[in-house]
Amino acid sequence: MSVNARVGGAGVAVLELDRPRALNALDLPMVTAVRDALRAWHDDDSVRAVVVRSTSPKAFCAGGDIRAVREAGVLGDDAAVRAYFTAEYGLNLAISDFPKPCTALVDGYAMGGGLGVSVHGSALVATERATLAMPETAIGFFPDIGASWFLPRLPGAVGWYLGLTGARLSGAAAVECGLATHFVPAADLAALEEALTGADGVRPQAVLDRFARPAPPSELAGHREAIARCFTAPDLAGVFHRLAEERADRAWAEETLDALRRASPMSLVATFDVLSSGAAAPSLRDCLATELELACRTAREPDFHEGVRAALVDRDRAPVWTSSLPFPV
Ligand code: QUE
Q: 254 catalytic, yes or no?
């Protein structure tokens, strides 16, 4: 089994993602195992808090089992696609609704579905080795796992930037923009884990405050104003237009335009729409319901099949999109 679940003597439960050869990409059995553990611990008074960690030094979790979803989508097996996303998004909601502190320790990659099992908890600890991203527009998909709830609620339109471009954030940048709650140096992570799972672990907030360090200056810091200017445009064409017109931060704007031009056009349109819808939605639950329907439709799209092929199956990183933008770029 690729998930280890145990409860320590101090009443702190540990969920360990353990599929290191796939960078802990969450397959359906893993999603189910995590969901079952949380269900058991929900009403178990001997469990006071939960810690989510990874056995892989490279990755907390690289995403969902997007390869299996592609195979089901290519075959037109809608039931299998729906079963996977229903389970995954159900888990995202269960973490958000979990009544006890739930702390994720992110060291290495946390992308897509990996953020789904970390951002919805009460704390997300990131180290200087962490990389956080919602990279779905690069594979013909869209930011899901509740991203239409949390991305539009990040300050300065940074969530729109992250969701549309798939930009990768360092741990420091993730803390700066509000995706992560605490920065802890990787060298202190073992001691933090020991404290969180020991007698002090029933008050994780105090432990986290003790271990947290000021996040070092991040790669994002100099671009926040340009991000806010460009990614508050009222539509996708406006984002392209503002990036093309950006004067104060020209090199960044060019890089960002390149990222958007590499993305699936269909994904950019879907992402702008789902983030707009999520920005006005009343709850994470509503957002996940909307995302579920969009995910089931997207799984049948040629751009999704091509995007996963290029990124994960053939690994040529040269997707040929068949969709196009509804405006000239
Ligand atoms: C976008 C994604 C994913 C991705 C790459 C993207 C994703 C995902 C993986 C992944 C990575 C390594 C593995 C694996 C899957 O990559 O969701 O099985 O070994 O799971 O650009 O959304």
A: no
